[in-house]
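Interim report to the steering committee. The following record documents the input for DUF58 domain-containing protein (418 residues).
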Amino acid sequence: MASTVSTTSGHTEASAPVAVGLWALGGLWRAAKAVAAVVRPVGWVLIAVTAVLWIVGERLGWWELVVAALVLTVAIVLCALLLIGRTAYDVDLDLGRSRVVVGERAVGALTLANHGERAILPSRVILPVGAGRGVFAVDRLAPGAAVEELFAIPTSRRGVLAVGPVSVVRGDPLGLFERVHHRDEPIDLYVHPKTVSFAGQTLGFMRDLEGLPAADLSPDDVSFHALREYQPGDDLRHVHWRSSARVGELMVRQYEETRRSHFVIGLSTAPGDVSGDDEFELAVSVTGSLGLRALRDSRRVDVHVPGRALPAATGKRFLDALAGLDHSRPRDGRLEELAGTVAAAVPLAAVAVLVCGSTVDAARLRVACSRLPYGTRVLAVQVDTRADDPELRRIGDAAVVTVSRLDQLPSALQRVLS
């Protein structure tokens, strides 16, 4: 037993220096990574050139090279000393609106405050915006002081832009070193597609027991509204005899129309179903306009693109989803497969709208419309930026509308309803 204890103790004593050595190596590695993180590529080049000058000058006895190496060494040390200093700003990034429409300017404010007890030396603040970035030069900030920088973000294209995180950069005039501290969290800026509003019901309704009551009154439906006096031509089956006996004249029931409110839109985002980015953006805007109109009409809206369904419970969520929409993968299917997906997902839809580009011919449109559920009112909106005037034609039981601009959509839909 004594021998065993002695062996264990010796093993522990032998492993202690190893553990200390590993800990020291880990600390050196972390320190080396921290130092390497602040050196820019130009700095590495200058450091390498300085080392070569030192070695060559010492070995060959060329004092000119030694003097040059000494000058470069002093410059590198001075630039490194400029990294010393606090960058502990309190950063507040505020966007006036986190949702804008294409073409609008998003305005924001960046506030930097020094709540410490010592001044903060001049530094640069970098604000990434999508693929670009904005750079602000901040002067020396005294304790308790604050500075506000205003900025505007042009929005020429639909998308979701990440604004931030804010980076505080401390560097040197030669650009050899750069110390970056990240502050705050990024904010998503949603650039919604352009939409057009139009009055009236979009495509009509179908009556349904589970529909929503509308403001229109009907002599025959399931949602009771009130009693009124009998008029010639009224159906005697709707006479309320008890009230008629009490009043002394015939009274008939009047109803609110109930309407089936399930509205589904299928937007083909397959690369082969649209001709170029302009047609794709127009198709997205048409989809947004139709969906918003249906939501204002208190309909239940489902929106499908190849491979997935878009959230459309509210107008905000719907436009947010459209803001981040891009071309789908070819394997996700084209318009015909999308129509089959819509039919399987929403078999009891009242109205189904298929939105596609000019590259979809009449034969493919016929196949796609035929795959939608029987009894569903079908409309196809085809966008064609090369067309002149809106066009209305029929393919089977479906109405097909062709538009070349977004402002043509209201009048084109009015022709469908007429």
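The chain has four domains: 29-81, 90-192, 215-259, 262-417. The committee is asked to note this result when reviewing the revised timeline.
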